[in-house]
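INSTRUCTION: Work out how this chain folds

Token vocabulary: learned, describes local backbone geometry

RECORD BEGINS BELOW THIS LINE
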Amino acid sequence: MTETLTHIRLFDIQRYSVHDGDGIRTNVFLKGCPLACKWCSNPESQSFAFEKTYNASTCMGCQRCVEVCPTGAMTLEGPQPKGTCTLCFRCEAACPTASIRRIGQDWSIDAVLEEVLKDSAFYTVSGGGVTLSGGEPLAQPEACGELAKAIKQLGLHLAIETCGYAPWAKAEPVYRLCDQILYDIKEIDPERHKRFTGVDNALILDNARKAAALESEFIVRVPVIGDYNDSQDTIQDIAEFAAEIGAEAIHLLPFHQLGENKYHRAGLQYTCNAYTPDDEMMRELADVASSCGIPVQIGG
């Protein structure tokens, strides 16, 4: 174990995952992301700040949250506008049905390692390990780097799922510690990328070129979003770029709407009008990507 005092802000740790890397994995989700993708399925991951969600469907109307709230931010209709809530989370502690949840916890590096090691036997037999995800892990570069170093000192396989939007000087040390880099590329055209995600993609593409040249296995992952980036031309552009920089493979990930309820629970408006590409469309897009001379996988 490490003796560091550094803390890292997470919004979830998911054990026994078979996605986001090889084998059986533990996914560590860091809070905070510099992008604001219109289709984001984890809106609770975007802000670095602590947040609160309220699930009206499980609320029993007992009013315990109302009774303990010091600012009047809780009513039977749910949380009031965020400005009245001080995030003391007394309501969460009082709620008997867990309808109110705190999003975001500060973990010590040691505590994360203790959780990760619970499934070490599964990593060994399946060729799995740990995946740093988010949000965007590199939104907390120092803590992420310290956690990555500690995981590698345990001899575990380490992957990172990243959007690539971070200064190279911050990203490179973390990437070099990783056995596998799962690198999201959503769009090549810079104007469309900024319209859909809120940021330009020049830094993302430049970092991709540099990261692909490292010893880590480099895989491009494309979330295929219906009505956003699901055209054959867009997928071909991304696949050609991936092949050009020497990526080992490209993974096409069909969009899903499983995160819609999270917006409602957080008091946010869900504005994404995307659809889920069907199997036939995904196969056609995979054929387009394959024609660019790079191995293609649907899902990942």
Observations:
- The chain is about 35% helix and 20% strand.
- The CA atoms of residues 169 and 206 lie 13 Å apart.
